[in-house]
C-alpha cells in the first residue's frame, strides 16, 4: 500500500528526530557545559519547531484521509491510531498558542526553581497564572466542548477520564487511610540505616543492580544527574541516578525505578523500532513498570535479603542489624512532606491531593491566588502535619510550572497497574520469592517483557494491562498487597 | 529590512539544527552505547535530510533574489555571501546524488576500517571506486565547466585553487627537502621520552594545559575518544583526547591542537552566534589555529621548558634528563609512515603527496586500481623508506573513504597561515618567549583572538589572515621558522 508506506516513511523520520530531541534533553541534564544554556534553548526550540511542523504537516492529513476505511493488520491499525491521535491533537492547537506555551513554560520553570530555592510563593504565582490560562486555552481547543481536564489528561494517558480516576480514588481512599492509621498507630517504629556509604561504591552497586534487573548496557548507560530520569527509546535508552552518602536507598531505588522505565523501552519488539509503536504506550503503563521493579520486586522481603548481603559485601556493613531490620528500613512509613520521598502507603495520598487541586485549577473552581492555602489545609487534613515551608509544600514539584496538568494521576494508575501485574506475575511464578532472594529477577522481568513490554504501543493502555493480567485492572490487588505487606511489617 | 530579517530568522534555526547534528556526532564518538549504531545512523540521516531540505528551501532562493542589489553593512553582506554560497552549492547537486553519496560514504567508512585492520587494500578498492565516481559527478555539478578538483576544494577552503596550491607547494618543496636532508644527515639523534606516565595524571595535566591555553570549560568539556576532535560552535565547543601511557605527547599535543580549534570557535564575537559568521571561516584558517597552538607555541623551547617542569611535578619525572633534552624529544624528526604522527619537517611532504594523488584520482589521470602502487613509489621517493604494509600506507587516512577529496591541502594552508601569524605575533609581542616560559599564553592567545578568531566568517580566509598579519600570506615565514628551529636543534 503506497499511501501507508509513504506515511510510515515520513513518520519514521519524525520518530528519529524525536529521539534526537530527547537525547538533547539528556545531554542538557548530564554533560552539557553550564554556559551553553541559552544556546541550547535555541537548539531545542529549533528541534521543537521542526517536530511541530512535521506533526501538523498537511501531507499527514492527506495520507490519513487516503487510508480511511482501508483494511490494515493489527500493527498497521495501531500505527494509524497513534498517528491520527498525534495529528489531531497537534492540529487542533493553534501554532501561536503552542509557541507561547513553550516560551512561557520555559520561563516558568526557571522562576519556579528560584521561588522554591527562596521559599517565595508570591514570586511564582504570576507566571503560574499565565501557565494555567494558556493550558486552559489549549484544553479548550482540544476538548471539543468536553472536559478541559480530560483533554489534558488524554495527552498522557489515552482514554483515561477524570471521572473514572476520581471514582477509583474514592474507592482507594478509605482503605489507604485506614492502613495509614493502623501503621502510624503501631508500636513498631523501624529505624533507618546508620553509617555512611561511599559514593563510588554506591554507583558500582547500583550499576550491578541495574544489570540484575535486566538493564542492557549495550543499549544504554547510567550517568549522574540532579534528578533521576530515563530517556530514549529503542536501542539507546539512558538513565540517570544520584548519590547521597548518608542514604544509599536514594541511589539504589531511584536506579531500580528508572531501570523499570528503561527496560520497558528496551523490551519493546524490535519490529516497532522508530515507529509509533516503538515506545511505552502511556505514562501510566510506563509508571507501572518503574513501580513494580522498584516496589513489588525491589522492596520485597526476598529481594531486600539479597540486597542486604550485597551491601554487607560492598560496604562492610548494610546499615542495619540484620536482613529483617534492613527490610523494615527499606519500607519505613513516615508522614513526610515530599511526594518523591513518600513510602508506598502515603504515595497515592499525595497524588489524590494534587489531582483534586489541579482539576480545580483547570476547571476554574480554584484560583491560583488561593492555591497555597488550599494545599496547606488539604495536606494537614490528609497527613496530620502542617506544611512548614512552601518548598516542602506547594512549590515542591516542577510539574505545574512546565504545564504538566493531568500528569499526576498517571503515577497512581502506574501503582494500580503494578498491583495487578504483581498479582498475575506471582500467580504464574509461584517461586518468585525464591528467585528474588537469590538476586535472580529474570523470571519476573522475563514475564513482564513477554506479557507487556514487548507490545509497546500495539494495544491501548487498559488493553495491554488487561491482556497481561487476564482481567481488567482494578485497585484491589494494590490495596490487598499494601495491607498484607505493611500489616505484617507493622504488626497491624 | 523585512526580507533580510526573514532570511536570517530562518537561517538562525538552520544553524541551531546544524549544532544539534554536530552534537549527535560528538555523542556517537564519546558516550553512545555501542548497540545504538544502527538507530543512530537513522537519526543522523533524518537530521541531514532536514538540513538538506532547509539549505535548498526555495524560500532561501526567493529571499536571496529579493535582496539582490540591496545595500547592506559588512555583517549583512558577509551573511548573504555565506548563505548564497551554501544555497548555490546545495541546489546544484541533485538530491538523489547527495543521498547516494551519503549512503555510499557511510558504507565505505566501515569497509575502509575493516580493510585497514586487515591490511587488505583489495577489500577497499571497489567501494573507493564508487566514492570517487560519485564525487566526480558531484564536482561536475558544482564546477560549471571548471576544474573538478577545485569545485571540491572550494567546499573546504573558499576561493582557494589547486593551481595556487600547486605553485605554493612547488616553492615549498625544495626548502623542505633540503632541510629534511640536513636534519636526517645530522649527527644529533635526540632520544624519545623514557618511562611510563599514568593515564589519569596525563588527563589531569592536559586539562590543566587546556586551561593554560585559554580553553573555556564553562562553554566546553574534554572527553576521551579513539580519535581526538573538536566539535561545536558558539557556547558549546567540546574536544576529545586520548591517552597512551608510554607516550604522553600523544595526549598533551593532541589536546593543545584541539584546544586551538576550540578556542577559535569560542573566540568568535558573540554577536555572530548561530549565524553563518559564527563558525571558523575555513578548514585552512581553522588548522592555522590548531597548528600555531600546537607547534609555534606548544612546541617552542620556551613553552616546553614550562611543560618539562609541570611533568616533573606531576609524574615525578619528565622522561628526559633536562629541559633541553625534553625540547629535543618533543621536536624529534623521523621518517615515519603515518601523517598524523609526522613532525613539523615532514608533515607538509605527506600532504603534497596526497594532494598530487587525489588530484589525479579526481581528474581521471590515476585509476583507483593503480593508487596503491602510486602511493608506495611516491612515498619511497619522498621519505626514503619503503611502505611496509597498507595500513602504514594508502589505507592510513579515513579521508578518501568518506569522500574528503580536496581536504588534505587545507592542512598545509593551516601550517602556512600559522607561520605567517607566528611571525606577526612575535613582532607585536617581543617578550612572547618570556611569557610562554612561565606558562602564560594569554599574550599569544589574546592576540590571536583579537586579530583573527573574533571575526569568525566576517572576512574571507585570505582576507582575515592578511588583516591579522598586515600582509598577504606566503609560505616564507613558515619555512624560515622551520629552518631556524630545526637548524638549531640539529646543528645544521
From TrEMBL, chains A, B:
Cofactor remark from the record: Binds 1 zinc ion per subunit.
Q: Which residues form the active site?
A: 258
UniProt keyword rRNA-binding present: no
Which reaction equations make up its catalytic activity? Release of a C-terminal amino acid with broad specificity, except for -Pro
Q: Does the keyword Aminoacyl-tRNA synthetase apply?
A: no
SUPFAM superfamilies according to UniProt: Metalloproteases ('zincins'), catalytic domain
Listed GO biological process terms? proteolysis
Q: Which InterPro entries match?
A: Peptidase_M32_Taq (IPR001333)
Look at the named UniProt entry and state the broad enzyme category this protein falls under: hydrolase
PANTHER family linked to this entry: CARBOXYPEPTIDASE 1, METAL-DEPENDENT CARBOXYPEPTIDASE
Q: What does this protein do?
A: Broad specificity carboxypetidase that releases amino acids sequentially from the C-terminus, including neutral, aromatic, polar and basic residues.
- What is the similarity comment for this entry? Belongs to the peptidase M32 family.
The protein, known as: Metal-dependent carboxypeptidase
Species name for this entry? Actibacterium pelagium
Amino acid at each position: 500500500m503506497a499511501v501507508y508506506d509513504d506515511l510510515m516513511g515520513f513518520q519514521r523520520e519524525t520518530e528519529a528526530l524525536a529521539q534526537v530531541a530527547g537525547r538533547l534533553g539528556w545531554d542538557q541534564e548530564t554533560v552539557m557545559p553550564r554556559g551553553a544554556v541559552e544556546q541550547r534553548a535555541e537548539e531545542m526550540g529549533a528541534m521543537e519547531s521542526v517536530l511541530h511542523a512535521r506533526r501538523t504537516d498537511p501531507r499527514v492529513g492527506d495520507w490519513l484521509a487516503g487510508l480511511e476505511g482501508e483494511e490494515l493488520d493489527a500493527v498497521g491499525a495501531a500505527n494509524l491510531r497513534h498517528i491520527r491521535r498525534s495529528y489531531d491533537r497537534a492540529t487542533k492547537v493553534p501554532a501561536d498558542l503552542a509557541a507561547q506555551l513553550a516560551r512561557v513554560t520555559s520561563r516558568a520553570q526557571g522562576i519556579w526553581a528560584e521561588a522554591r530555592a527562596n521559599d517565595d510563593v508570591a514570586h511564582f504565582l504570576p507566571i503560574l497564572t499565565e501557565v494555567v490560562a494558556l493550558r486552559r486555552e489549549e484544553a479548550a481547543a482540544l476538548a471539543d466542548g468536553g472536559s478541559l481536564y480530560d483533554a489534558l489528561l488524554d495527552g498522557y494517558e489515552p482514554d483515561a477520564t477524570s471521572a473514572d480516576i476520581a471514582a477509583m480514588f474514592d474507592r482507594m481512599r478509605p482503605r489507604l487511610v485506614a492502613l495509614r492509621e493502623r501503621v502510624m498507630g503501631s508500636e513498631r517504629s523501624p529505624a533507618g540505616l546508620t553509617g555512611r556509604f561511599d559514593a563510588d561504591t554506591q554507583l558500582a552497586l547500583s550499576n550491578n543492580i541495574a544489570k540484575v534487573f535486566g538493564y542492557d548496557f549495550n543499549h544504554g548507560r547510567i550517568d549522574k544527574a540532579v534528578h533521576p530520569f530515563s530517556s530514549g527509546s529503542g536501542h539507546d535508552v539512558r538513565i540517570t541516578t544520584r548519590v547521597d552518602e548518608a542514604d544509599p536507598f536514594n541511589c539504589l531505588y531511584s536506579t531500580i525505578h528508572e531501570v523499570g522505565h528503561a527496560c520497558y523501552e528496551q523490551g519493546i519488539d524490535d519490529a516497532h523500532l522508530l515507529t509509533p509503536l516503538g515506545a511505552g504506550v502511556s505514562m501510566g503503563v510506563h509508571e507501572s513498570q518503574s513501580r513494580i521493579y522498584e516496589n513489588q520486586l525491589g522492596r520485597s522481603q526476598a529481594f531486600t535479603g539479597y540486597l542486604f548481603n550485597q551491601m554487607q559485601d560492598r560496604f562492610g556493613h548494610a546499615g542495619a542489624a540484620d536482613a529483617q531490620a534492613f527490610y523494615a528500613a527499606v519500607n519505613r512509613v513516615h508522614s513526610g512532606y515530599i511526594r518523591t520521598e513518600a513510602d508506598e502507603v502515603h504515595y497515592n495520598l499525595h497524588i489524590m491531593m494534587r489531582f483534586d487541586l489541579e482539576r480545580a485549577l483547570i476547571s476554574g473552581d480554584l484560583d491560583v491566588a488561593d492555591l497555597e492555602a488550599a494545599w496547606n489545609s488539604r495536606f494537614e487534613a490528609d497527613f496530620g502535619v502542617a506544611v512548614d515551608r512552601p518548598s516542602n509544600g506547594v512549590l515542591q514539584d516542577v510539574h505545574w510550572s512546565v504545564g504538566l496538568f493531568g500528569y499526576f494521576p498517571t503515577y497512581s494508575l502506574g501503582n494500580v497497574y503494578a498491583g495487578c501485574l504483581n498479582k498475575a506475575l506471582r500467580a504464574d511464578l509461584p517461586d518468585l520469592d525464591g528467585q528474588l532472594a537469590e538476586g535472580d529477577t529474570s523470571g519476573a522481568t522475563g514475564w513482564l517483557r513477554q506479557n507487556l513490554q514487548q507490545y509497546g504501543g500495539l494495544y491501548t493502555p487498559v488493553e495491554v494491562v488487561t491482556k497481561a493480567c487476564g482481567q481488567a485492572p482494578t485497585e484491589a490487588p494494590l490495596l490487598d498487597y499494601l495491607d498484607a505487606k505493611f500489616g505484617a511489617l507493622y504488626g497491624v
